[in-house]
Amino acid sequence: MSKERNAATFGFHAVYDNDYLSAIRAAAENKFQYVQFDLNVSTFFLDTISRHRLEEIRNTADDLGVRIAFHAPGESIGMFTDSPVIRRGLLDQMKLILEKANRLNAHHITVHLLRPPEFPLADTGKDEFQAKHHDYYKRVLQENLNELTRASGAVLVTVENFYLEGIAIDALDEMFLKGTDVFLALDWAKLHRADRTRDNEQYAFFQRHSDRIREIHIHDMDKMGKQHVVPGQGVLDFEPLMSKFYDGSQWLTVEVKPLVEAVKARDYLQKAMGEFEGT
């Protein structure tokens, strides 16, 4: 890695913080360039936040030199959602989030795709449902993501590699060929299985589309497969991530809690980057 890079842009993952303003102030105090607010957390729901409050949050962030990003709700419902009423509700919710994210001058929003239903057969144990309905679910995913990008304004829509496989990869490959404004968030730990082996399908996908990566999630994995460990205290090697996928432009979200541990993670990676540069 000999080419000169820009200074790294680090953010922390806000989950346990009391509110927007305290998280933004904590970011400034701890020298993070942004906060990624997790919208799976009711504390940060944007639905009832007034225009005046949004202006206060944005002005505070601007004054302190801290940017804002979001993680979309997606622990239980994802972009393969096809039940008509639920699908409409999901898309309406996401459009509301994107509208307010633009008011906050947010940089990006990260989404989980999750996966289509699985129905294993009793005699073979194999699931043939997804193969039979491959084109249907590929179309559903593409339609949902395209609707998000049409409503995204200046906010980037980034897809994280959480259950990124099969149909999702086929759908995104096709969308990227068409130049669709969907981008990627590479979670290095999630690219590894619980036994610490690399998911080669995901790895090859990110290699094909490295130019689409806008965000990288930083956390480690321990020897038992538990994630969200401070980098350097787990078992993952971060050198391939930094040498093959990071070029200085991607935002680095530290997904380690609480904030004092996120600072340790950031500091470790900043030091390690210098060592990686010398390899």
Could you name the key traits of this structure?
40% helix, eight-stranded parallel beta barrel, two-stranded antiparallel sheet, TIM Barrel, alpha/beta
Q: Can you walk me through this structure?
A:
With 279 residues, the protein is an alpha/beta fold. It has one domain (9-277): TIM Barrel, CATH 3.20.20. It is 40% helix and 16% strand. Strands 1-2-3-4-5-6-7-10 form an 8-stranded parallel barrel. It starts with 8 loop residues before the first strand and ends with a helix.
Summarize the structure.
The protein has about 280 residues and is of the alpha/beta class.
Can you lay out the helices and strands and say which pair or pack?
Layout: E1 9-14, H1 20-29, E2 34-38, H2 51-64, E3 67-71, H3 84-103, E4 108-111, H4 129-132, H5 134-150, E5 156-160, H6 166-177, E6 183-187, H7 200-208, E7 213-218, E8 220-221, E9 227-229, H8 239-244, E10 251-254, H9 259-277
Helix pairs in contact: 1-2, 5-6
Globally, the shape reads globular
- What characterizes the major β-sheet? 8 strands, parallel, barrel
**Helix content range of the residues, please?**
25-40%
**For this structure, what is the CATH class?**
Alpha Beta
Spatial gap, N to C terminus: 7 Å
Question: Architecture, CATH level 2?
Answer: Alpha-Beta Barrel
Number of discrete helical segments: 9
Q: What percent strand?
A: 15-25%
**Total separate domains:** 1
Structural class: alpha/beta
- The CATH topology: TIM Barrel
What is the radius of gyration computed over CA atoms, rounded to a whole number of angstroms? 19 Å
- Order of H and E elements: EHEHEHEHHEHEHEEEHEH
What's the CATH H-level superfamily name? Divalent-metal-dependent TIM barrel enzymes
Mean pLDDT: 94
The poorly predicted ranges are none
Sequence of strands across the biggest β-sheet: 1-2-3-4-5-6-7-10
The count of DSSP E runs of length 2 or more, i.e. the number of strands, is: 10
